[in-house]
Amino acid sequence: MMGTESSIRQTVEKSGQEPLTVGDVAAQAGVAPSAVRFYESRGVISATRTSGNQRRFSATAACRIHVGRLAQSVGLSIGEIAELFASLPDDPEPKDWQFVADRLVSEAERRLEKLRSDLEALGSGSRLCDLGAALSNRDESELN
Amino acid sequence: MMGTESSIRQTVEKSGQEPLTVGDVAAQAGVAPSAVRFYESRGVISATRTSGNQRRFSATAACRIHVGRLAQSVGLSIGEIAELFASLPDDPEPKDWQFVADRLVSEAERRLEKLRSDLEALGSGSRLCDLGAALSNRDESELN
DNA sequence: ATAGAAGTTAAAGTAATGATGAAGTCAAGG
DNA sequence: CCTTGACTTCATCATTACTTTAACTTCTAT
User: What is the number of structural domains in chain B?
Assistant: First the structure.
């Protein structure tokens, strides 16, 4: 009756920590459990272990994954995403998230600007994509 | 003594067509010949064949590859790039290139805007990434 | 005409990004 | 205790985006 949704399985009185399982994070992030494990293996998220060797995540894990997927959609690799999150504390405050979000948006903007300028360079003036680039030797200097 | 750079190997009097080889295109685009063949197999570029079954490309091939690499940097897959180029004629005029470039920039902008809005949705208000989602007992005195 | 650079195909390999399945372990309810 | 669902690791498979290899063929310069 209630096996699908996992609830708190240990009454942690600590302060504000949810010991989320792989399945919890997967459900919250909308990805497969295998993806959650994969992300941990690549440093996108991190986990502690229970005495029984099971992973436990904080609530930020699902968030990292959400942000990571967004980052993928604008061209960042998993490695770049892990790198992006490297500056994020274990228990990030809003300002930390804001910093990461700003960096991500900046990177996306940087890529967009590069796209724009490279496209313009490629088609400087009116002839897009420089259709006469490598033709210095039209039909001379070659004996044929 | 000069086998490295391929030159014009057939005197084509047509009008302005260069029959580029795989190696020519690879050099112009700055990729490996194998990549050029791969791009052809995926419909990013197209080739005619010589009587001896060798590929010959027009000058637009290198350009397509240049643009394709840019597209990859903002998150498009090879399939999406081929799709993007589907609207590009065999011998595109500047306006055709412009159309493609505009579509590409638009798509990149679309993704950037989605990144922005999703990030904002994720951290609506001041709490970025909704760190209180599943929390019941959080010390919510924070609201600076 | 010929040497050798560059081209051909098909198949296999690599790296990134996961999904799927097997065999076994852990935790909670009856 | 025992079942059952969710977890564990490890292996294998899939897809994308290419690269490499092998066995040949074609092209170009001399």
Answer: 1
Range of the domain at A41: 22-122
Minimal C-alpha gap between B41 and chain A (Å): 22
In chain C, which nucleotides are within 7 Å of a protein Cβ? 4-9, 16-21, 25-28
Residue B25 to residue B66: CA distance in whole angstroms: 11
Map tokens 């643009």 to a residue. B67
In a domain, A13, yes or no: no
Would residue B50 count as lying in a domain?
yes
On whether residue A78 sits in a domain, the answer given is yes
pLDDT averaged per 10 residues in sequence order, chain B, 144 residues: 43 56 97 98 97 96 96 98 96 91 97 95 66 36 28
Is residue B15, in this structure, part of any structural domain at all? no
Region of residue A21 (left: phi > 0; alpha: psi -120 to 50; beta: else) = beta
How is residue B104 written in tokens?
């590409």
Mean pLDDT in residue range A32-55? 97
Instruction: Give chain A positions within 8 Å (CB) of B74.
Output: 74-75, 108, 111-112, 115
